[in-house]
Amino acid sequence: MNNDISFVAKQIMKWFEFCNSSVGDIMSSSHLLSLSCKTPIWTSQQRKAIPAAIEHLVEQGYITATENDYIRLAQKGYDTLHMMNSSEIIKLLLEKYQSGDASNIDPAEYGVDRIRLLEIVDIMEKGNLIKGASITRAGQGNKIVYGWPEQARITLQGINYLQGRSATMTNQTTYNISDSSLIGSQIGTLNSQLNFNQTSFSDEITQAISGIKAIPELSQENMETIIDLLGQISIAVQSDNKEEQTEAKFTLKGVIKGMGNAGIKVIGVLSGLANLAKFLGFPAP
């Protein structure tokens, strides 16, 4: 996918986001024309890339296209727009804990509801990034019923997580991909140059999601978080966004580390896919 197609695809999704669109909402050709005339005004090459950008978004499942030149926001596109990246929420929460002022944690501030926030906090605690959140589960499906994230405290590993992300971002000015591993309280980096077909990589993401859904030991919330992060990685690779690639990858590996035996099985699935294994720094098949 070239830069013009990537630019137009992002602008289309940003339009749906700006309009606070719901699933099924329509963008017409007149909307597209108006969008292309706004600052920054699209170049002729970017306008020519509109059909390819729409085709790309349809292939990814973010929109559907109709014969009368309308495009509709799909469920996957809606979920992508209206759910702040888990990795970004984890970073913001850790920064709040590190500041020492976590007395008021409002889920709306992160674009999620209370239960989703508690699920993310639970993942952070299992990953030993924080402690003391007192997450409680009960009932059918062992779902979260309440918790006290305001009482949690950041751990040394949580501090190192923040420092490691910052260091990795700096490394991105030199390397295309920076492969980061969270081991105990230390951060190790292995830099690699990745070259692979984006379509093949996208196919492997789809295969990985299918494999992860088949892991019985994996809780629903952990499964959804992993799938969300894999989706973020796929989008970041296709758009060649190095910073987002690193954020999602670093968070995914940290989350897997806190899953015990289920995490080992997740690694087994991801390691069985050559491009994805190389991207994550796992032993390739």
- Please give the domain count: 3
* Helix percent band: 55-70%
Question: What percent strand?
Answer: 5-15%
Give the quaternary arrangement of the chains: single chain
Tell me the major beta sheet: 3 strands, antiparallel
Computed Rg: 20 Å
Which overall shape is indicated by the principal axes computed on the Cα atoms?
A: globular
Biggest sheet: strand arrangement: 1-3-2
Order of SSEs: HEHHHEEHHHEEEEHEEHHHHH
Mean pLDDT: 79
Structural class label: mainly alpha
| Number of helices in the DSSP assignment | 13
How would you describe this structure to a colleague?
The chain has 285 residues and is mainly alpha-helical. It has 13 helices and 9 strands. The strands form 4 sheets. It has a 3-stranded antiparallel sheet. The protein has a two-stranded antiparallel ribbon with strand order 4-7. Strands 5-6 form a two-stranded antiparallel sheet. α1 packs across α4 (50-60), α1 (3-18) packs across α5 (75-82) and α10 packs antiparallel against α11. The relative contact order is 0.10. Mean pLDDT is 79; it is low at 166-193.
List the helices and strands and how they pair.
Layout: H1 3-18, E1 26-27, H2 29-36, H3 44-48, H4 50-60, E2 63-65, E3 71-73, H5 75-82, H6 86-99, H7 114-126, E4 130-131, E5 136-138, E6 143-146, E7 153-154, H8 156-171, E8 177-183, E9 186-192, H9 198-213, H10 220-238, H11 242-257, H12 261-271, H13 274-280
Antiparallel strand pairs: 1-3, 2-3, 4-7, 5-6, 8-9
Helix pairs in contact: 1-4, 1-5, 6-11, 8-11, 9-10, 10-11
